[in-house]
Amino acid sequence: MPPHLRRRNSVTTVTSSAEPDSAAVPRPNASAAMLVRRPKLWLIPAVLATLVALLLSLLYMGGILDPNGNLHRLPIAVVDADTGAPPPGQQQNLGAQVAQSVVAGTPGRQFDWKRATPAEAADMLASGKVYGALEIPADFTASVTALTTGQATARPTITVLTNPGLGSLGSSIAAQATQGAAHQASLAIGKQLTSSPAAAGADPTARLLLADPVAVSSQVGHPIGRHSGLGLTAFYYALLLVLAGFIGGNLINSGVDTALGYADSEMGPWHTRRPTVPITRTQTLLLKMFMTAGITVLTTSMVMVACIAALGMDATHIPLLWIFSYCACLAIGLGVQAINAAFGGIGQLVSMFVFVALAIPSSGATIPLQAAPGIYRFLGAFEPMRQLSGGVRAILYFDARGDAGLMRAWLMIVVGVAGALVFGFAMTRYYDRKGLRRLTPHL
Hints:
InterPro entries: DUF3533 (IPR022703), T7SS_ABC-Transporter (IPR051328). Residues 1-25 are annotated as: Disordered. Pfam families: DUF3533. It is found in: Cell membrane. With 443 residues, the chain is α/β, with parallel strands linked by helices. It has three domains: 4-62, no CATH class; 74-220, abc type-2 transporter like fold; 229-433, no CATH class. It contains 14 helices and nine strands. The protein has helices at residues 32-35, 39-62, 94-104, 118-126, 140-147, 168-194, 204-211, 233-259, 281-310, 318-343, 347-357, 374-379, 384-397, 406-433; strands spanning 4-8, 11-15, 74-80, 111-116, 132-136, 157-162, 215-220, 265-267, 270-272. A five-stranded mixed β-sheet has the order 4-3-5-6-7. Helix 3 (94-104) links the parallel strand 3 (74-80) and strand 4. The longest helix is centred in the C-terminal third of the chain and has 30 residues, at 281-310. It is elongated and about 105 Å long. The protein starts with a strand and ends in a 10-residue tail after the last helix. Mean pLDDT is 88; it is low at 1-20.
């Protein structure tokens, strides 16, 4: 007898009277022991899981193993404020000699020493352009010369200024470099003093002082709040924005697909699938992006409430921080929707690498990009975490200055949103024109 058609819930089901009703005769259940022996069942999960583990390990560990060995032009300011006259027989005062030796004595291109006035150095520290500074005081030559005459009232001091707003590790690397440079300069000056005729009759204690005459003090050049995680709150706050956009985008994506009948819903032992709603890929993406824009208002607000109101994170420019956080989170969410629309089921893995796996090690917020391998400096030019952490850092630590990274962050957010819209809708329109619809029968 030919098959006949019956419609249930707008879905066509095919049955045959020559065969018993499937509801009367239960189908045999497959067993795990039977399925586990199928090689094809293992292939795709094993390959994907192995590659993801390998790539994540290389990405995360490759960027942090040797910061000192990977140093490349870490910016540090050198301030020579010495106004003393040059010692007899020399063309430069001691401050100029120290500054010149510091700049010329750095091995390779590990550090980018920037000669600056005190005002310029203060501005560089306040805008996050340098990780620290070496400051030679105005009376440096006079104080050193006084050691040989017995008229010294205090030991000459060179000051090392740190910039914790750029992260504890970067500031620490800069401080170690400047302290080492200052110590080498002190020993060089000591050789001049101990060989001078004025030091010939000095007692052993005085000669010991003259051999290493300069003290090095360290102080914060641009202070940040006590509840700033030693300069790490900018990174973790930016990470929260990325995760909120990434997770929220994927939740919206799966939620819409479930509601429209393109994906199953399982909660514990309960399984349902709604009738399929006929809708184009372009209209589906438009719906998901519209919902992303609305729900991001809530997620962004909750991030700020948790971090600032509940936990007491130091934060300034609260309205600007909220607007920036919303736009940043929205850019990530729209990017997730575009990638999912283009790549389908594997889109979550692709977006995870784009917005998380590649972004975190290239953010430059925990390990300075100047202390990371070159591949991370390349990724940092366009990966979202680098841009967002720079913008958050500028708002939290550097008075929301545009030249501290905020303008670049805004520009990259605009580029990210535009790229997500163009890429997402270009792909869905292409699929729709090709007739590659998502409609599937509800069996």
